[in-house]
Structures are given as structure tokens and as C-alpha cells.
Specification:
The complex is a heterodimer.
Chain A lengths: L15 E4 L3 H11 L1 E7 L6 E6 L2 E6 L5 H14 L4 E10 L9 E9 L3 H5 L10 H13 L4 E8 L13 H5 L2 E5 L2 H10 L3 E11 L8 H19 L3
Helix pairs in contact in A: 2-6, 4-7
Chain B lengths: L14 E4 L3 H11 L1 E7 L6 E6 L2 E6 L5 H13 L5 E10 L9 E9 L18 H13 L4 E8 L12 H7 L4 E3 L2 H11 L2 E11 L8 H21 L7
Parallel strand pairs in B: 1-4, 1-5, 5-9, 6-7, 7-8
Antiparallel strand pairs in B: 2-3, 3-4, 5-8, 6-9
The chains are: A alpha/beta, B alpha/beta.
């Protein structure tokens, strides 16, 4: 079998998948953490791998950037490959002074400036993380002594957008702690197909952050997040 | 005194339970609190302050619907400095997983209201406070009550004969557990003012099954939820904040 965007055969993708935006990061996850990884997709260069982490079968695949791209991959993974647990591992910007570079944000829910929810609902849908997954990740983060924040994350359609009449002010005023570009779609699609989803982000920049991470610091904080995501994934 | 609440400053505790029905507020005060004092009778929206296991807390009706609840929540936070608000109400099951008497712990709420469309160029996501949600979840687990953590739909209209018959099914498809009428505004205002909020609801009827609760069963399962609300609230009251 294959789908329009994934060439894997049935059974080649594990029921739990880590989803970085960048396909090269999926490759990095496979090479760094997986025993005997197998590449199951190279369509559009969107690399996907399945291997074993602590003895449990796990996959990692890129989603591309933004709600339209992740919507394609998330839907095909849950609908055609029976994936039950999806954990996005990405970077985000921090809206809060107390949330600094390298800190980890677990998105309890995602608001968005995308139109996808308004098209689907006669009202405002609230895209939520699966609570069991969220709570497991939270408890593991505490146990691993990682600096973690749980809260509202904004999923934006445009990274570069200087012309918009509205800034981030109201989203921040009403509790958003960070921004990225995929979470709202991931949660909505997972809910539709009765799968679990969680969005874990490592803070890479922010409104209050002037520092720039060195390559080494970036790598270390990425490893911290990936370890948390993998340890969470194998519980489900 | 605020526009709709007749209490003096300090008469309302920093932690409050909010049923929709003011008579339920009275019931909670009479049944579970000691040394109670009625702080509000304006519009008959009864409010009481007392002690639960030695910890000072209040309970007050919110009325029905986002508009009414929004008024009380706003005044409680901005005029009386309330820091923790827990709605305790009833809901109709939307998900097929639920049975009569089940408790839903809302981690977020969808809505058919326009309130957030006026503020945001997109779709806002009203969320409960994570730590309150988690505390209620752990307490429910400890007490072995059937409780589900997830999404609610806060509707503006209880009676909506003109809505397409399958309108509710779209919310069901996307995992919404149950419908009620207040949580979206409670969560939105709590985030705006940086305070904690949570909703607990008991399933009293459903769009997916015809059964309704008997008055007696209703009372019994409401008590279970009220106790969960009180215990959750109490776990957030510091001894020195009384």
C-alpha cells in the first residue's frame, strides 16, 4: 500500500510516531536513538523511519512546516497506517519572560489564526492535547528534572507576516505562552480519528530572549526534548 | 460591592465553587460548609462563604449561560480578588463513551458563542488550569469515580429547534465529551486575569441515549462531583491564605 504522500507498506510504521517538522531531524532521531532503524518514506524527501527505542517499536517522520503540510501527514498516518499516538517534537517561540531558551513547553491546547477550524465548525473548536499523554510527559519531565511549562500555545499560519492588523497582543493577554505552526491541526486531526496527540516544543527564541543558542546548546536541548518525547511515546 | 454582587471586600474567599443554580450553592453551603455566611442576595444569586475541613471557601450561583456566568466571573476576579474558580454543573453527554452519572473534568471548552471571535482573528482555545485539572484527575482516580478528562462544548442555546439535526455530531466526531453552557467564558476570563479555573460536570442526560437521571440519582451523583470539587479546591488553599 501507499498513500499519495507516504510510500510505506502496511505494518512498516509503528503505532507511535514522533513528528518533527524537519525530515532531517527525523533522520537524526532514528540515527541517535533507534536500534536497527528502517527508512519507510522518501516521497518528497519527507523521511520517515521505524526502529526500536528501549525495546519498543517507534517511528519518526517529518511533517514539513505549517498546518497544511502537517495535516496531510497526520491524516494519512492515522487514517491509513493506524497510528494511535502522535507526538510532535518541535521548536517554538516563547511569549513569557519566565520561559527561557531551552525550556520545554507542553501544549495543553492550541489556538490558531488558521481558518481550518472555522471551516469545520459552526463555533470555536478547542484543539486539546490528549490528557493521559500530556500528564505522562509532564510527570516524566519532572522526574527528569527538566524545566517544563504546560499551557496554551498559538499555532500561526505565517512565520513572516508584517502586514497583519493584529499582532500577538490578545493571544498573549489571554494566556498563550508560546507560538509554533502545527499544533492546532495535529490535535484536531487526532481527535477526529480517535488517536492521541501531544505537542512538545523546545524554546528556540522569544519575545524576551536576546541570547542566541550555540550549536552545542541547541543540540543538547533538542536531545533533552527528544528523550522526553520518546520516553513518553513508549508508554502508549 | 460590585454591580451584581452585594458582598463587602473580604467577604468572599479566594477560592470559589460555582454551580449554575443559586439554590445548589445554598445546598452546598448547608451540606458541606461550616460557619457559613450569605454574602449575596442581589438578583437572588445566592453566595456563601464558610469552611470546608477548616479551609475558607465560597460558593455562589453563576446563573445559566455564558453571558450570566461571564458577569459573575468577571466581578469575582476583578472586584473581589478571587484566585481559584471551580464550576460544578451538569452536562449532556455528546460522546458515546459516557454514561449517566459520569464526571467530566474539562481541560478545555469549545463554544458556539461569539465572545472570542470578537477578540481574536482566529480560533481561541479556552483551557482549564492544568494543575487544577491534574489535581481533580488524581483525586478522582484515588476515589475510584468514573471521570473523563477532555473537551466540553459550551453552547449559547439550550433550546435550538432550528439547528440542523446533526449539528451536534460534528462536535462528537472531534472528541467533545459533553455539552453545557458556561465553561468557555470561565476559562477565557481566568486566563485573561491570570487566575485558575476548572469545570467539573456530571452527565445528567444525553443526545446519544434517551435515559435521564431520576431526581434521587441526580442528587447522589451530584454529591460525588461536589465533593470532588471541594477536595480539589481545598488542595489549592494554603493555610496562610485564609
Amino acid at each position: 500500500m501507499s498513500t499519495p504522500h507516504i510510500q510505506a507498506e502496511a505494518g512498516q510504521i509503528a503505532p507511535r510516531v514522533l513528528l518533527p517538522g524537519d525530515p532531517l531531524r527525523a533522520k537524526y532521531i532514528a540515527e541517535t536513538f533507534f536500534d536497527s532503524p528502517v527508512c519507510f518514506n522518501n516521497t518528497r524527501g519527507m523521511l520517515g523511519y521505524t526502529g526500536r527505542y528501549k525495546g519498543v517499536e517507534v517511528s519518526a517522520m517529518g511533517t514539513g512546516m505549517g498546518i497544511p503540510s502537517i495535516s496531510i501527514y497526520a491524516t494519512e498516518l492515522v487514517k491509513f497506517y493506524g497510528v494511535k499516538t502522535l507526538i510532535r517534537v518541535g521548536t517554538c517561540g516563547s511569549f513569557r519572560e519566565e520561559i527561557g531558551l531551552k525550556d520545554i513547553i507542553l501544549a495543553q491546547g492550541c489556538c490558531t489564526d488558521s481558518a481550518i477550524l472555522r471551516r469545520k465548525f459552526d463555533g470555536d473548536y478547542a484543539p486539546l492535547a490528549d490528557f493521559a499523554l500530556l500528564n505522562t510527559a509532564y510527570e516524566k519531565a519532572l522526574a527528569q528534572e527538566k524545566k517544563v511549562f504546560v499551557g496554551l500555545v498559538k499555532s500561526s499560519d505565517m512565520l513572516y507576516q508584517k502586514d497583519k492588523p493584529f499582532g500577538f497582543e490578545n493571544w498573549i493577554k489571554y494566556g498563550a505562552i508560546g507560538a509554533e505552526m502545527e499544533g492546532a491541526a495535529l490535535y484536531t486531526i487526532a481527535a477526529r480519528y480517535k488517536a492521541r496527540a501531544l505537542c512538545i516544543c523546545s524554546v528556540s527564541d522569544g519575545k524576551f530572549q536576546q541570547d542566541v543558542l550555540s550549536a552545542e546548546e541547541k543540540e543538547r536541548s533538542l536531545l533533552d526534548m527528544l528523550e522526553l518525547a520518546l520516553d513518553t511515546a513508549i508508554e502508549f | 460591592m460590585s454591580t451584581h454582587i452585594g458582598a463587602q471586600p473580604e467577604q468572599i474567599a479566594q477560592t470559589i465553587l460555582l454551580p449554575g443554580d443559586p439554590l445548589r450553592a445554598k445546598y452546598i453551603a448547608e451540606t458541606y460548609l461550616t460557619d457559613t455566611f450569605c454574602f449575596n442576595t442581589v438578583r437572588n444569586m445566592l453566595g456563601f462563604t464558610g469552611y470546608y475541613k477548616g479551609k475558607r471557601l465560597s460558593v455562589m450561583g453563576s446563573g445559566m449561560g455564558i453571558s450570566s456566568c461571564g458577569i459573575y466571573v468577571h466581578e469575582l476576579i476583578s472586584d473581589y480578588g478571587v484566585k481559584t474558580l471551580i464550576r460544578v454543573g451538569t452536562a449532556g453527554a455528546i460522546s458515546e463513551m459516557l454514561q449517566l452519572g459520569d464526571i467530566v473534568i474539562a481541560s478545555g471548552a469549545c463554544t458556539t458563542s461569539n465572545i472570542n471571535r470578537l477578540i481574536f482573528p482566529g480560533t481561541y482555545c479556552p483551557l482549564a488550569d492544568f494543575e487544577l485539572t491534574r489535581a481533580a484527575y488524581l483525586l478522582a482516580k484515588e476515589q475510584n469515580c468514573r471521570a473523563f478528562v477532555g473537551n466540553l462544548l459550551s453552547s449559547d442555546l439550550f433550546y435550538d429547534d432550528d439547528a440542523p439535526k446533526d449539528a451536534i455530531l460534528q462536535w462528537q466526531r472531534y472528541g467533545v465529551l459533553a455539552g453545557e453552557m458556561e465553561s468557555a467564558v470561565l476559562f477565557t476570563l481566568a486566563k485573561k486575569y491570570g487566575v485558575r479555573a476548572l469545570t467539573l460536570v456530571t452527565v445528567a442526560d444525553s443526545i446519544v441515549f434517551p435515559e435521564k437521571m431520576s431526581a434521587e440519582a441526580r442528587e447522589r451523583s451530584l454529591d460525588k462531583m461536589i465533593l470532588l470539587g471541594l477536595e480539589t479546591a481545598a488542595s489549592f488553599i494554603k493555610e496562610d491564605a485564609q
